[in-house]
Specification:
Elements: E1 2-11, H1 12-15, H2 35-47, E2 71-73, H3 76-90, H4 102-117, E3 122-128, E4 132-141
Antiparallel strand pairs: 1-2, 1-4, 3-4
Helix pairs in contact: 3-4
Length: 156
């Protein structure tokens, strides 16, 4: 078991494009379906795996391009340390003063280490100044407990 890190920061309105953050339905529309439905399905099927946007379900980061992996660690504490460093880097830009609190951030990191140690995933999101959004994720791999059929993005 190991853990992959992902980070996305960008305009909030881009983050809100939920259609690009959902995987395509497992069954394509029928041939006799409306042409716009078929076209939309094809667009989502082509775009979802290569989109840099955070998926709605954390485990789906594993199907995204390997270039989006920011780090990989077998040790949950090392993965949580990456999270700690990213929180420290972005905290000055958090829109909420309460989320900048050192106590709050330490609690998030401690909780993340515990969740990763038990095989879970971690997904955090923060509003930043200039309506932007930050998404941080640590995804347990080989296998992922929520979606064990998803392959490791690094081929491990």
């Amino acid at each position: 078991m190991h853990h992959h890190a992902y980070l996305w920061a960008g305009p909030k309105d881009r983050f809100d494009q939920e259609a690009l953050r959902r995987p395509p339905h497992p069954e394509p529309p029928l041939a006799e379906s409306r042409p716009d439905m078929v076209l939309r399905y094809r667009e989502v099927a082509a775009e979802f795996p290569k989109s840099e946007l955070p998926p709605l379900e954390t485990a789906y980061w594993l199907v995204k391009p390997r270039s989006l992996v920011r780090g990989t660690w077998p040790d949950p504490d090392a993965a949580a340390a990456w999270l700690r460093d990213r929180l420290a880097e972005f905290a000055p830009r958090f829109a909420s003063e309460a989320q900048r609190s050192g106590t709050h951030l330490r609690t998030l990191v401690s909780s993340a280490a515990q969740r990763l140690a038990s095989g879970g995933d971690v997904s955090l999101g923060f509003y930043l100044e200039r309506p932007s959004y930050l998404s941080l994720a640590l995804v347990t791999c080989s296998p992922n407990h929520q979606m064990p059929a998803l392959p490791c993005p690094l081929g491990a």
